[in-house]
Amino acid sequence: MRKERQKVLILSLLGLVSVNAMAQQKAKRDTIKSIDEVVVTALGIKRQDRSLGYVAETIKSDEILKTQNNNWSQALEGKVAGLKIQTAGAGPLGSSIIKLRGDISMNPDQNNALIVVDGVPLNNNTTGTGFSAYGAGAKADLPIDYGNGINTINPDDIESITVLKGSTASALYGSRGAGGAIMITTKSGKSKKGKVQISLNSYSSYDTVLKWPDYQYEYGQGTLQKDTQGNFFYSYGASADGINTGSTSSAYGPKFAGQYYFQYDPDLEGQSAERKLWQPYKDNIKGFWETGTTFSNNISVEASNENTSFRSSLTYLKNEWMMPNTGFDRFNAAFSVDHKLNQKLKMGIKLNYSKTKSDNLPATGYSNQSISYFMIFQNPNVDLSWYRPIWKKGKEQVDQIHPFSSFIDNPYLIAYEMLNGVDKNFLTGNVNLNYKITKNLDVMVRSGMELNNELRTQKRPWSSANYLQGMYREQHIRLMDLNNDVLFTYRNSFGEFDFSASAGGNIRYTEYTMNDYIAEGLLKPGVYTLPNGISTISKFARPNDKQVNSAYALATLSYKNKIFLDLTARNDWSSTLPKENRSYFYPSAATSFILSDIFNLSSDLFNYWKLRASWSKVGNDTDPYQLIKYYNNSDFVGSVESPSLYPNPNLRPNMITNIEGGMDFTILKNRINYTITAYQNNSKDQIIRIPTLWETGYSTKVINAGEVRNRGLEMTLNAYAVKNKKFSWSINANWSMNRNKILSLPEEFNGEPYTMGSVGGVVYFNAFVGGSLGDMYGYGLMYSPDGQVIYNATDGLTAKPTQMKKIGNAYPKWRAGIQNEFRYKGITVSFSFDGQYKGMAYSQSHHKMTEQGKLQHTLFGRENPGGMIVGEGVVQNADGSFSPNTKPILLSAYYADYYRRANVETNTFDTSFIKLRDARIAYTFSKNVTDQLKITELTLAVFGRNLWMWTKFPLFDPEAATLNDNQITPGVEMGQLPTARTVGIQLNVKF
To answer: Do the Cβ atoms of 143 and 64 come closer than 8 Å?
Structure first.
C-alpha cells in the first residue's frame, strides 16, 4: 500500500506549493473532504488546506442554494462551528451581521466579521433612521430595516464561501479583519469543452408565521370595573350599564359567557344603538398577517476555452412579505471575464450590480407606528375588520379610525399609509492583472470598488399618533469604498523545501455622506413632498472620509509537503489616529504538521492526522473625526452646533492577540473527518466612549482602556455513515462554546460598572472586571433568606430594590448544528437542525401583554372573588423576621406590578432552542431524460426553512435581537416582528 501511495503526480497549485494528486481513485471516491482541498485565504490567495495553521471552512454554492434564502448569509446558520448570523427579525430585507467566535470588544461595531467579495473587502455598515427601538410616547419615529451590504449579494452568483475564523487567518486584512473574515468567491465561466452553457434557476416560496404568543381569548377589554349591582361589566362609552370601560388597552374585563353589552359599532363609528353579543374575535391579530410570497428567476450564460472564461448572470426577485403591503423587488446583474492576453499576462474583471426597490418596509420596535405595538394593544373583543376602512367617513387622509385609543394607530393605516420606501443602487467589482515577470516571480495589481447610492423615504399621514399633521422625510445616502492593492509573489523549491513569499501594499479610501430632509407637518394631507411641509429641516452631512494605507508580507515554507510554516507582517497607517500613533505593526505565525506523513501512520483505518498552531497580533483603528473638535450641522440652516463627544488627540490602536491550536483527523478511508480547535483572544487598549461630566460641555469622551479575553472550543465532524454505488448518507455536525472575561476597565470608573449600552432604559449591558460581555443588568425581585419573594405589607405589591442586579447573559453556553443528506439514485433528501443551550433575552412585548392581561398565564386568579389575588411570598416584619404575605390586591394591579417594565428579571427568559432550520427533497432526472429534452441537467426540488422549533421562550423567536437605530442588539426583544416559516419549490435547468 505504501508504494502505491508514493505514485503521485506533483502538480503546481498556482505556483504556491506542491500538491500530491493521489493515483488512488478509490480513496477519492470515499473522501468527504480532500486533504489537498484548495481554499481561498486572505487577499484571495489560494492555498492547500493541509498547509494552513488555522481553520478555514468552505461552504459550496450548492449548500447556499438548497433553501433559497433572500439573504445568503442565513444559509450558513448552524453549519459552521463558532459562526452566528445575527438579525433583528425586522422585516423581509433582514440586515445581518456575522460574528465569529463571540465578541472581542466592548465596542459593538468591532465585533463583526469582515465580508470579502473576490478579494475586495465589503463595507457592511448599516445606516439607521436615527431612532431607538423604544419610542412609546416620545413623539418620535422608529428604526426601519433597510438592509445592509450583505443582502445585496446574489446567492445565485456565489461559487463558494470560505470562513476564516481567527484573527491569524485574516491578519493580512488588518484592522477590518480583527473579527475574522468571510471570503466570498463569485462564479466565473467553467463550461466544458469550450461550449456555451446556459443555466436557469427558478423558485417560488411561501411564508407563514412560525410561532405566536399564547394569546388568551377568554376575557375581554376592561379593568375589573363593576356596575351598581357589583357585577363586572363592559360599556363602550358611558351607557345605561355604567361608565366607559372601552378606552383601556387592558383585557381584565368580563369573561365571554354570552352576555350583551353596548359595544363599538363600525357603521356608527361609536357606541352601538343596542347591546351586542360579548364575544371574542380569535383571528383579530393573526388574521392581519398574510401568506408571504417570493418569486425568483435567474439565468446565467458561461463559456470558456484555454485562454478565456466568461460568465454573465441576471436575477429578478420579487418578495411580498407576510405583513400586508410590504416587500421588495431586487434585480441583480453579474459579469465576469478572465482572459490570458499572452503567456505572461492575465486579466480579470468582475462586476456585480444590485438594485433593491421597495414602496414599503415595516418599521420595528415599540412605538405607536409599529405593527408590533398594535399587536400588543389589540383586545380580544375587537374585530379586526372594524379598522379596515382606515379613515373616518368624510375624513379621508385627515382622521383615522382608532376607536379605542388615540395612542394606538390603525393597523391598516400603518400598512398602507405609513410607508417606508427605498431605492438602492449597489455596485461592487474589481479589475485585476497578473503578470509573470520571471519563472519564479509574478505580480498582481487589483483595483476594487464599492458604490452605494440610496434614497429612502418615510411617509407619515395626518392623525397618526406621533405626527398629528403628518411628516415626510428623505434620506440621500452615498458610499464609495475604493481598494487598490499590489502583490508581488516569489516561488521556488530548494531540494525538499518549497518556498513562497508575497509582499505588497494597499490603499483604502472610504467616503460616506448622508443628507437628511424632513418636512414636519403637511400643508395638504396625503401629499408627500418637501415643499408641502409646514416647516422643513435640512441636515447636510459633514464629510465622513477615511483612508488607510497598508504594507504587508507573507512567507510560506514547507518541508516535504509535511511541515509548513507561515509568517505574515502588516503595517497600517490610519487617518483616524493621531500622527504619532497612526502607524501600527502586527505580525502572525502559523504552522502545521502532517503527523500521519511524518510518522508514516497512514493506513486504510487511519488516514490523516494534522496538528496546527498559530499566533497573531492584529491592530484595530476607529471611526473618523474623534481626534479634534468637529461641529455638527444644526437643524437651522447656515448654523452649526457643538458636538457632544469630547475628542481625544492621543488615541492609540486597539491590539488583539490571538493564540489558536487544533488537530484534524480522518479515518476509515477518509469517511470520517474530525476537527477540534481551541483558541484565546486578548483585546487591549479598546477604543470606547464613556460618560463625562456635563459641566465639561460634553456628554461622552473617547478613550483607550479595558481588556477582554475570549476563550473557546470548536469541534466539527464530517462523516459518511453509508456509502455505496446506490445509496449514501452523509452527516456534518459542529459544536462550539465561547467564554469571555473582562480583565480590566477604565480607571475612571473606580470599580463601578461601565455601561456598554442599554435598550429601552431598562436593560443595561454593564461591564464589571471579572464579568462578561453580554451580561444583562436590571431591576428584579427581592427575596427572603429562604428564597421567597418579598411583598410590601401595606399595598401588597412586590418590594422594590434600590440596586440593579445581573439578570443573565445574552449569549448561550454553547451552540450546535447537524446536517444530514441521503442520496439514492437521482433522489436527494437533506435536512439540518441547529440550536443553542441557555442564553437570556428580555421581552418588552411579554411585559406589556402580561400587564394588560393578554397572555394565557394571566388567566391564573381570574375566578377569584372580587378579582383579587394574594402574591405568593412573604412580608418583612418590623423586627426583621418574615411572615406570609396576606394582602389581597386587584389582579390587574398584581400583573402590572410583578411584570412591570422595569422588572427585567420577570420578563427575561431562557433562549435555548432547537430548530429544523432547513429541509429539501430533490430529484435529478437521469441522463436518458435530459438527452431526450436536449438539456444537460434537470433538477426539481421542494424545500423549507424554519419548519419546526422547540423553545420555552414565550414570544415569537428565541433568537431575539433589537434594531436600535443602526445597532443590532442581541438579548432584547423590543417590538419584534414574527419569524417566517417557509416552504417552496425550485427548478434548475442547464443547457
So the answer is: no
Task: Give the model's pLDDT for residue 14.
Answer: 30
Query: Where do the domains of the chain lie?
Result: 65-210+291-369+418-774+810-839+913-990
What is the pLDDT, as a whole number, of residue 40?
Answer: 77
Alpha-carbon gap, residue 729 to 24, rounded angstroms: 22
Rounded to 5°, angle at Cα 521 from 515 and 527: 85
Distance (Å, whole) CA 49 – CA 51: 5
635 pLDDT more than 80: no
- Pull the grid cell for residue 618: 492584529
Q: How confident is the model at residue 3 (pLDDT cuts 50, 70, 90)?
A: very low
Find, among 318, 277, 262, the residue nearest to 92 by Cα. Answer: 318
d(CA 490, CA 436): 10
Residues 6+ apart with CB under 8 A from 752: none
pTM strictly above 0.70: yes
Q: Tell the burial category of 637 from Cβ atoms under 10 Å away from its Cβ (0-12, 13-18, 19+).
A: exposed
Cα 448 to Cα 40, 163, 333, 378, 545: the distances in Å are 17, 21, 17, 51, 17
Helix H or strand E encompassing 789: none
Residues, the chain: 991
Query: In this model, does residue 854 exceed pLDDT 90?
Result: yes
Question: What's phi and psi for 347, nearest 5 deg?
Answer: -130, 145
429: Cβ contacts below 8 Å, ≥ 6 apart: 349, 350, 351, 352, 448, 449
C-alpha cell at 858: 394571566
pLDDT digits (tens, 9 = 90+) for 236-283: 999 999 999 999 999 999 999 999 999 999 999 999 999 999 999 999
Q: List the beta strands (DSSP E) in 415-466.
A: 420-436, 441-464
| 801 exposure class (CB count in 10 Å sphere: 0-12, 13-18, 19+) | middle
**Helix, strand, or coil (residue 385):** helix
DSSP state string for 281-332: -TTTTGGG---EEEEEEEEEEEEE-SSEEEEEEEEEEEEE-SSTT-EEEEEE
Q: Please give the Cα distance from 279 to 219 (Å, whole number).
A: 9
The string of pLDDT tens digits covering residues 583-593 is 989 899 999 99
C-alpha 879: how far from chain center = 53
Can you list the positions of beta strands (E) in 801-936? 805-809, 814-824, 827-837, 840-843, 868-870, 874-876, 882-884, 888-890, 908-910, 913-924
DSSP E strand stretches across 596-671: 606-620, 632-633, 640-641, 645-646, 654-667
Residue 46 cell numbers, joined: 489560494
CATH number of 65-210+291-369+418-774+810-839+913-990: 2.40.170.20
Widest distance between CA atoms in the chain: 104
As given in the structure block, the three cell numbers for residue 106 are 466592548
